[in-house]
Amino acid sequence: MAIEKDTQGQTSNSKALDKWDLFFLVTMITHILAAPYTKVEEIFQVNNIYDHIYLTNDVENYDFIEFPGVVYRTFISSLMIAAIDFPFKYIFVRIGFTCYHMHVFSRITLGLLNYFALKRLRSAVQDKYRDDYITNSFFLMFIYDFLRQKLSLDILKKVIGYGVIFSIVFISITLAIDTFFWREYFNQRLRKTEDESFFMWPELYVLYYNTYLNKSHEWGTSPWYWYFLAAIPKSVTVAIPFLLFGLIYQRRGHIIDLQILDVISPAIIFVGLYSILPHKELRFIFPALTLFNLGGAMVTLAYPCMLAILTIQEVPPFDTSTKTIVTYQLTIKSIEIEMKSNPVLPKPYLHSDVYASMTGFNRFLYENEPIGWKYNRTENMPDTEYLVYTHLISDRNDYAGFKLYKEPVKGFLSLNVKEWIKNPLKNNLVILSDQIYILEREDIQQLRIGSEVKVNYENV
C-alpha cells in the first residue's frame, strides 16, 4: 500500500481511513438520520428498492406498474442498491427491525457508494497535486503547456476509446434490465397486438422527451443563467471564493489559471448545455458540482482534506428536521397503538396525497400491510371519494368528514434574516408553517371490525 508525504511533510496513507473520512461519514449519517425521506424525483427509485427487496420477482405487483411517472426511468441504480441490501433483510427480521430501518439502511448504502467514489477522487487529487500548489507554481508554468500539448492527444484517444467501450457495455446492460422490467408495464397498459415488440432505453427516452419534444417546460421554466447565478453559488458556496481566488491570483503568467480551468471546464460546458433547456433543476447538474468543489480544493492543497469538507453540504436545522424524521413513523405507530387499544375499530386504510409522496411517504412505510392495513395514493380524486379511507396524510385539512388526528407537521416557509440580525436570541432565523396534516374519520369510533368502511356523502 502506497505511503506518501502530504504537503506538511507528514507521512500519511492515502488509502487509510483518516479523520476527514470519519468527518465525512459522520456528516453523511447525520444527514440521513435527520432527513431520511426523499424528494419526489427519488420516490420512483426508493419504491423500486423496496420492491426488489421484498417482492423480488413479483414484477407485476411492483409500484411502477400503477405509478410509472412522467418519463421512463432506469432500474439499474435501484437494482444495484437492492442487491447489496438484500441479504440484510433476513438479519433485520431476526433482530426485530422493520421496513423503515431497511429504508434508512438503503440510504446509507447509497451514501457509502458516493463516499467511496469521492475518496478515490480525493486520493487521485492528492497523488497528482501533492506538491505545494503555490510554491511550485513557477516550475509548473514551464512544464504545464508542454505536458498539455504532449499528452492531450494521447489522453483524448484513451478517453474516446474507454468512452466507446463503456457506452456499448452500459447501453447493453440498460437495454437488457430496463426492457425486462418495463415490458411488464407495457404488457399491462400499452400493448395493442400480440406480436408488438418492445425495447426500452430510459435515458434515450428522457433525452427525446426533454430536448426533441421539449415537454420539460410544462414543469416550470427558469432563465438561461439560473444555474450559474443561483443554483451553483447556493450549492458550492464554500468552494466559490477559493475557486475564484485560484483562477485569478494563481495565474502563472496566463489570464487565468489553466490548471484549474482544465478541471472545471467540463463542468462549465456541461452546465452550459443544460442551460439551453428552459426547465431547470439542481439535480440535473449534480455531476458538475464535484468538479467545482475540486477546483476550489486545488487552491488549498496545503490542506488536502478540504476536498472532503467542500463536498459536504450544511446539516439541516435540527428542530425542523427532527420533526420531519419522526412524523410518518410516529403517525403510523400512534394509529397502531390506538387500534390495539380499541380492537373493534376497522383496519386502517391510509391515503397519502401528492405532497405527502413528494416529501417522502414511500413503500418502506407500508410495514403494516401484512397485518391488514391498506395504503393508497391515487391522484386527482373528487372529495366525495375520500370517505372510503380511515386516515389521510395530506397538505389539506378541509376534507369533509375528517378531523385533525395529531398536530400538523411544520416545514420551511422562509428566512427571517432582518429580524434575526436585530435580535438573534429572540427571533428565529427560519420561519416554519404547517405543511402536512394527519386526518382521521370523524365517525371512526362508530365503525366495527370486519365491516366495510361506510361512506356518508350527506355532509360532502
Automatic annotation (TrEMBL):
Its main location: endoplasmic reticulum. It is an enzyme of class 2 (transferase). It holds the Pfam family Glyco_transf_22. It catalyses: an alpha-D-Man-(1->2)-alpha-D-Man-(1->2)-alpha-D-Man-(1->3)-[alpha-D-Man-(1->2)-alpha-D-Man-(1->3)-alpha-D-Man-(1->6)]-beta-D-Man-(1->4)-beta-D-GlcNAc-(1->4)-alpha-D-GlcNAc-diphospho-di-trans,poly-cis-dolichol + a di-trans,poly-cis-dolichyl beta-D-mannosyl phosphate = an alpha-D-Man-(1->2)-alpha-D-Man-(1->2)-alpha-D-Man-(1->3)-[alpha-D-Man-(1->2)-alpha-D-Man-(1->3)-[alpha-D-Man-(1->6)]-alpha-D-Man-(1->6)]-beta-D-Man-(1->4)-beta-D-GlcNAc-(1->4)-alpha-D-GlcNAc-diphospho-di-trans,poly-cis-dolichol + a di-trans,poly-cis-dolichyl phosphate + H(+). GO terms for biological process: protein N-linked glycosylation. The keyword Ribosomal protein does not apply. Keywords: Endoplasmic reticulum, Glycosyltransferase, Membrane, Transferase, Transmembrane, Transmembrane helix. Pathway: Protein modification; protein glycosylation. It is a multi-pass membrane protein. It is found in: Endoplasmic reticulum membrane. It comes from the Eukaryota. Mannosyltransferase that operates in the biosynthetic pathway of dolichol-linked oligosaccharides, the glycan precursors employed in protein asparagine (N)-glycosylation. The assembly of dolichol-linked oligosaccharides begins on the cytosolic side of the endoplasmic reticulum membrane and finishes in its lumen. The sequential addition of sugars to dolichol pyrophosphate produces dolichol-linked oligosaccharides containing fourteen sugars, including two GlcNAcs, nine mannoses and three glucoses. Belongs to the glycosyltransferase 22 family. This is Mannosyltransferase. It comes from Stylonychia lemnae. The lineage of its organism: Eukaryota, Sar, Alveolata, Ciliophora, Intramacronucleata.
